[in-house]
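Narrative summary of target 7.
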Amino acid sequence: MCFSLEWVEQLLIWLIIVGAIVALLKLLVPMILSNLGWAGATVMAAINIVMWAVICIFLVYFIFDLIACLGGGLRLPHRP
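Modeled conformation, tokenized:
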């Protein structure tokens, strides 16, 4: 099912969902944590780091999934 129209459709849907969740978090969390002062700023920075780490992990997983779709991934040349 790699690289089919259904696959591209699902990819676009997931990208929209992830983008919307990230935008909502960036909008709502600072408003909620603003009452805590410097502690709220620290918590917001930690949440931002975790959010980007999760996005990067997803991208690594996605890239290796694409490599697997190409026919077994990267292979070293066979020596005779």
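Residues 38-69 form the longest helix (32 residues).
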